[in-house]
Structures are given as structure tokens and as C-alpha cells.
Design brief:
This protein has about 400 residues and is of the alpha+beta class. Helix content is about 25%, strand content about 25%. The protein starts with 11 loop residues before the first helix and ends with a strand.
Length: about 400
């Protein structure tokens, strides 16, 4: 008789059978584990509660299964804001140096010290926001038959609220994931700051490896050592004040730099672990990226195809207009490096409020509301690393 019922099972026969095999008294023989291993399932062997119709009436011990979840990509959440429909970012472009007029003085003429030289300002703007809500119903009396007392009911309420919190954390994680995906494909579509690691490696070494070749044990370690050094050199280049690795608006080109403590490096998990195992395990050079905000990415968009991204991106063109591209797919995304101001999301309004108690129905609804904004700034430095 299976144990997944409310009946009591006599286990002595099977227990003796297991014991004799474990002690060597008898030889190995099949054991019907279905008779004593309890497997979680959705079939209910007792009556339902009258409201949710998913909780059995009180049986015995109750385990409230909830585990707090912390969002990934928390590093790209920016400060909250409340007022204003537009966020603006004020930038200033360098202007050329001038000749020193002290050495061009002429008798009978004066030097105009009041000539106007206005700063070359670039303002970028973020428009719009995204709104969403969630609500849950909490009952006063209808669940009494499902719990043994107020303490257990309180744990159930904590379970419900904990689940809501986990969902909010993952929701923020998922929109952050999409924000990163748009930045990556936008950079690729604009052909700006894209590094093809394997292509460069083949050029440096004279090989003609494919992605499949590079996965072979004899090729993987030297490639990962090279890749680690290349990423470190790129991070160093990003700290130089220049116009590299960014979209430059015509006539308002901004010289930017990203020091290590303002740099974020997100790496696809297999490649990150490969570098740690193949490179850092031999000689640990933590000074290369120790000040950067690094994160391991298990998947970029879909857990089913973890190294790939497929989006229809929007990105900035050099004339200052936005380009919405067709659906674009990219495999073998190794990683992305970007300035802390290159992308992010902010929660403009986040609030919770319960409804008045419904006396007729005996319940209260709790509502959560959010107004959020997710952004990419392609005028900031960013590099996409591809394994091709």
C-alpha cells in the first residue's frame, strides 16, 4: 500500500528487508520504495477549505513553505524619484583649446577679454514610466477550519505576504534582465563597443578555432587565460577619458571615463566559472577587476537558452534620434561591461494599501502599486563581449 494516503502503513517487513541488505545478511534485491517514501503531490486526501479550495482541513503538522528570494541585478537599481514626468541628464562636451593671446599683442590694438565662449551642453531625456499592481485577499473567518489556531493562521498570512515579496523581487530582477538585454542588442545593432573574443583570439594566435573547438579541454584553458587578460585590458581602457565604446552625438561629443569603482561587469556563468577554474586557480590576479561591481549571470533572457538574447531593441543614433530595430537574436553572449550610469531602473512610486473590511464577505484586499522606469544611456561607455 502506498504511503501517499492518510492510512497508517505497517513498515516492518520492508524495514527488515532493507536492514538485512544493508548489513550484508542478504544479497541485493529490489525494494518497493513507493510503499514508504512520501512524495509531494497535488492530490488531496481530505476535504478542502471552503474559500481557496486548495488547503486541506486540519490534519496534523503544517509546513509553511516559503523561502525569501533576493533579486539579481540589484546593482542597476537607481535612486527613487517621485516628482516630474521627465528625467533629464545634463552633459557637457569638451571645446578646443585656444591660442594664448599674451604672445600675439600688437601696438595700438587691445585684446578682447569679454569674448563669449558658451559651454557645449548636451541634454538627454528619459520619458514615460511603467505601472503595475498586484492584490491579495485576506479572509477573517472562512479559513478557520484549515488551521489549528491564530498562531498557525498568522503563519499562513506570513506565507502569503512572503510569496508576494518573492514575486516582487523576481519581477524587478526580470525587468532588470530585459533592460540589460536591450542594452546588449542595442550595442550590437549600432555596431558600437562590440568585442568578438574568439575572432580576436584567432587573429592573435593564428588559429581558426570555432566555438565548439574552444570548448575542448586542450583549447579552453589557454583561451580563457587570454580572454581574462583581454577583459582586464578593456576595463583599463574604459578608465581613459575618451569617446570610445559609446554613442557620440554629432557636434556634442562627450569625453567620458569609467573608473574601476564605477564599472559593472556581468559575465555568463559558465565563462565566469571557467575563468576562475582555468585562470585564477593558477595565479590569482584580483587587482584587475577587484574594484568593479561583478555579477555572474546564469541566463541572459531565457533559462532554456541561457547564452542567447532575442529582442527588438531601441537604441540611440549619432543624430540624437531613437532607432527601433527589428527582432534581433544573438547567441554566445559572453558578458557585458558598462558604466554605472549606462543603464538601470528606478522605482518612482511604490506603495501598499488595504481596502476597508468587507463586512458582507468577511475579507480585506491588500493592493500593491508600482511606477517604474527602465533606461539605457548609449552615450555612456559599454562593451559587449561575444564568444564568436
Amino acid at each position: 500500500m502506498a504511503v501517499n494516503t492518510l492510512n497508517f502503513n505497517q513498515l516492518s517487513t520492508i524495514l527488515n528487508e532493507i536492514h538485512t541488505q544493508a548489513t550484508g545478511k542478504t544479497e541485493l534485491a529490489p525494494v518497493n520504495t513507493s510503499e514508504f517514501v512520501s512524495v509531494a503531490n497535488t492530490t488531496l486526501q481530505a476535504g478542502y477549505d471552503p474559500v481557496i479550495n486548495a488547503i486541506t482541513q486540519v490534519i496534523g503538522r503544517t509546513i509553511f513553505s516559503i523561502r525569501p528570494y533576493s533579486r539579481r541585478f540589484a546593482g542597476i537599481r537607481m535612486d527613487s524619484q517621485k516628482w516630474g514626468a521627465i528625467t533629464r541628464k545634463i552633459n557637457i562636451a569638451d571645446k578646443p583649446f585656444e591660442n594664448d593671446e599674451r604672445y600675439n599683442l600688437t601696438d595700438g590694438q587691445s585684446v578682447d577679454q569679454y569674448k563669449v565662449n558658451k559651454p557645449n551642453i548636451l541634454q538627454t531625456n528619459y520619458y514615460g514610466a511603467n505601472i503595475w499592481q498586484k492584490h491579495i485577499t485576506l479572509f477573517k473567518d472562512q479559513l478557520d477550519s484549515a488551521f489549528s489556531g491564530p498562531d498557525q493562521f498568522g503563519e499562513f498570512v506570513s506565507l502569503v505576504m512572503g510569496n508576494a515579496s518573492d514575486m516582487f523581487e523576481q519581477a524587478n530582477e526580470n525587468v532588470a534582465r530585459a533592460t540589460i538585454a536591450n542594452f546588449i542588442i542595442g550595442k550590437i545593432s549600432a555596431n558600437n563597443g562590440v568585442v568578438h573574443l574568439l575572432t580576436e583570439y584567432n587573429a592573435d594566435t593564428g588559429n581558426e578555432y570555432t566555438v565548439q573547438d574552444i570548448r575542448k579541454p586542450e583549447n579552453y584553458k589557454p583561451f580563457m587565460q587570454w580572454a581574462y587578460a583581454r577583459i582586464a585590458s578593456l576595463a583599463s581602457l574604459m578608465s581613459e577619458r575618451s569617446q570610445e565604446f559609446q554613442i557620440n552625438i554629432t557636434g556634442k561629443e562627450i569625453n567620458r571615463h569609467t573608473p574601476a569603482n564605477r564599472l559593472k561587469v556581468y559575465t555568463f556563468a559558465p565563462e565566469r566559472y571557467g575563468m576562475e577554474a582555468m585562470v585564477l586557480a593558477d595565479t590569482y590576479h584580483d587587482n584587475y577587476l577587484k574594484d568593479a561591481d561583478t555579477e555572474t549571470v546564469n541566463f541572459w533572457q531565457s533559462i532554456q537558452t541561457p547564452d542567447s538574447i532575442t529582442v527588438a531593441p531601441v537604441y540611440l543614433s549619432p543624430d540624437g534620434t531613437l532607432i527601433t530595430d527589428e527582432e534581433t537574436s544573438q547567441e554566445n553572449v559572453f558578458g557585458v561591461m558598462f558604466d554605472e550610469e549606462a543603464l538601470g531602473y528606478t522605482v518612482m512610486e511604490e506603495w501598499t494599501s488595504p481596502t476597508p473590511f468587507n463586512s458582507a464577505g468577511g475579507y480585506t484586499n491588500i493592493f500593491w502599486h508600482w511606477t517604474t522606469r527602465f533606461y539605457n544611456d548609449f552615450t555612456e561607455k559599454g562593451i559587449v563581449l561575444l564568444l564568436n
